[in-house]
User: Fold these one by one.
Assistant:
Number 1:
Amino acid sequence: MTPDAQAARLRTLIGEFPRKQILVIGDLMLDEFIWGKVSRISPEAPVPVVDVTGESYYPGGAANVARNLREFTPHTSVIGLAGADAYGDRLCALLQSSGIDASGVQRSAESATIVKTRIIARNQQVVRVDRERQAPLTPSQFDRLRRDLSEVIPRADGIVVADYGKGLLDQQVAGLIVALAREHCKVLTVDPHPHTSLNWRGATAIKPNRIEAFSAAGMRLTPPVDPPQCDVGLSQAIERLMRLWEPQTLLVTLGEQGMLLLNGDAAPFHIPTRAQEVFDVSGAGDTAIAVFTLGLLAGTSPREAADLANRASGIAVGKLGTATVTPAELRATFA
């Protein structure tokens, strides 16, 4: 297939995205951005004084994956936890105003809404402040989660799991998701967390970044090697993960080195990054898993889906904040 024919095919398949019904499961967060300017250093400590000029809020964590998906399909729903607090009110209001089905979000006084506050001055992050209280699911929360998953998964075309290691997902929940996805023949993609060490055997595709890949493989992180195909440490980590998880597809995101795709018995395939300017990497992985999943559901090959995800990530890192990518922006990469 010629490059022009390939581009035309992928543009056509992007047009299939709005028909897909996607369920996102994972740790929900609220991203708070405080914007300001710096003109002096504090007399109290050697730190900048930020004069605040504005504030903005966005769905974060797994909610940001849903937000990215919603740019491409109106049939996006999310399951997770939020506190019965003002931050939870704001998060749910943002999801609903975006057209995301948040009926699967459990609100509880036993849970505090996770908030990531980033203070930005001169287009640079000065500091990040995290508000979180990690706790395992209570028996009643797990019972409702099981009911919600049993009801929603059969109706979905695909499932995205975004594990941020904040307590929603443990091995029992992971096993339940995998079992339901396999029972109903659903595409299941997973963005794992390096510290939860959950076994996702049976998932369609798993997308760790380089640090997550080494951590999940139980290996010490080694410096990157260029090209990635010659990175012995990374190759060993990938071999262990393929044996551990047995996914159909493993997509390892490598930051400025792009992505490395493992599919079946095929040799690793390297996809160089398309990012031209990098302003903020916040949420780039969320964009990647969202577009990669939609590509698989629309009928692309794993290599084509990874290409689309790489293009979308290249756009996302060129924006400040946890930004999303639009269908028009993704199509424009083929111009």
Number 2:
Amino acid sequence: MLTEKQKLEVLTRLGTELNQVKDLDILMEQILTEARRVVNADAGSIYIRDKDQLRFTYTQNATLQERLPPGEKLIYNIFSIPADESSIAGYSAITGQALNIHDVYKLESTVPYRFSRQFDETAGYKTHSVLAIPLKTVREEVIGVLQVINAQYDEGSIIPFSNDDERMMVHFASMATVALERAQMTRTLILRMIRMAELRDPKETGSHVNRVGAYSVEIYERWARKNGVPEKEIQLKRDILRMAAMLHDVGKVAISDKILKKPGRLTDEEYKVMKQHAVFGARLFIDKKSDFDEAAAEVALNHHEWWNGKGYPGKIDLSSTENALSSAGQEGKPPGRKRQEIPLFGRIVAIADVYDALASKRAYKEAWDESDIIKTMEQGAGQQFDPDLIKVFLSSLDVMRSIQQRYPDQGE
């Protein structure tokens, strides 16, 4: 358990660290991790407000995590609850007040909110103390609720959250809200870029790119830990990868509608033009100002390269658009990148993109059965895909399924 001095030191450091995280989902994970650490909470969750609903967006639970095999992640359902006074999180969102509840099973009959026991009963968990803090902007607008659960002594016994814990979390929540607003703005800008591509290619939807980004991060994290990559490097790179993967096909904005929206099979010449989207996408980030620009260019250019060297666009010179486009897609000219010549992020997004294409329903096809998807991906190992990364991918199918539920296509 942290001392009060240590908690203040943590808060001071977190103000800087949270603002360095750019991706919204990764930021929420870090916010919840640090919030739990500050008040020594066993579990916690984040709700994001969407009009009159609170969307249960992220959760952590140390007790349930310990029941899983090493390296596995807690799978949880995404759902929404009304933003009203009937629930603990809803009450905090509507009133803008923090709630510090010592035992949710012993709520007074005079309070308007109630605790739903459904999760506890399903998961075999017992919630006792809850601290719900509204995430309020400087304009006093509540954009969500941060909830930490079951304060603990060092030996693990459950205790109520103290008044100092509450004050600490209110301060933490104000810093987290600033970071969340910035990350939400970044996500919005990226999705606007995606919507431009979607106007040209209906397959390039916000749900699709969010899934590809989330799949890619999961594959990278498992691969990195398996290969002994330092945790600090993992945290930095997954933030960049998440956003870069979302923009993998942004170059399609430069491809003709006659090709993108053609209902039938492309001719050889049309396919050569379609291949140029990888070059157009990479060229958008050629004037690199950050690690994100470098990663986005890397992913856009390389996510159609094949492990055996038969992908595209191959070894081209991006410094000249004319030269790059004239050679992109030409059979054998230039030679394709192969094996480790293909940057890691490109190899990862190649798997994530194909998996989502096979697993998703489209106007021209139904979603494939998972058994057929697995067979196809396994057959592609050593040919289209990095065989080591395919092994990592296949070990994370439970998480992949949960990501599909998290980002369903519109109308599902």
Number 3:
Amino acid sequence: MLEKFYLGLDVGSVSTNLALVDQEGAVVYTLYLRTRGQPINTIKEGMKQLDKELGSQQRIAGLGCTGSGRNLASVMCGADVVKNEITAHAIGAGNTCPDVNTVLEIGGQDSKLIILRHGVVVDFAMNSVCAAGTGSFLDQQAARLGIPIEEFGDLALKSQNPVRIAGRCSVFAESDMIHKQQMGNSVPDIIAGLCDALVRNYLNNLGKGKNIQPPVVFQGGVAANAGIKKAFEAALDTEVIIPEHHGEMGALGAALLARAEVKEKPTTFLGVGISDKTHSSRSFYCNDCANNCEIIELSCENAVVARWGDRCGKWSALTGDRTG
């Protein structure tokens, strides 16, 4: 009898993550790939690598998609369920820490704060505008300091006297960091100050008015940074839990949602073989009304398979070999 697994696919602007869970919901495989502005190619690469991992006695019985590229991924792969990042990250966190009350999530380009009570999302906030509260902020400053981002957190822990750096804007933070360097402050003290600045910015932008209670789970790629974890624990005066698969929690949540959605139904997943098909996408504007919607069109083997982005449903209802 074939062993069933459920796949979660989280397609973001910086990374594309895959998570595979078994019938009990245990994680059996995860994969992190850089999206690099090419989500179609990255999804295909993920499927190729997944194909190598799957044995002949294993099959994917369900697929869930999330992330900013979830619509594209859903159409390409034939998803059984498509959910936003808030839902997926909340489900993933709840699987790791069933009594979680607060989820802190910081990725490369955006950040989220999710408030849960008894496993239900009751409040949330997102920041996709200001870079000062995201991983890209740390990447930029690490590059300026000539330090690999992987060493950033450990250096922060060596700080004896963290400096205070203005963190409400990434431009001002960089200027302030240069000023602190010129004053002779040590690199660990400056890095610790940058970690504190990011956490301060995050809590000021997303945490204002939110009832943050423990247990607190910290996930996303930035959760690997020990300096940020320490800064959050100091600011919130509580322990911050880092899940084992902190970078793939959105994908994990999507996989668990697929597992719940499919149950005994046949999956709509098109299979890992989609990596061998030819896909292309384009966008155009519909000028039929004042909305001027930007329509995204996906083709497979030169046939249009989906369109989305329209408010009225005119274009999304059209599939087949027609073009707009």
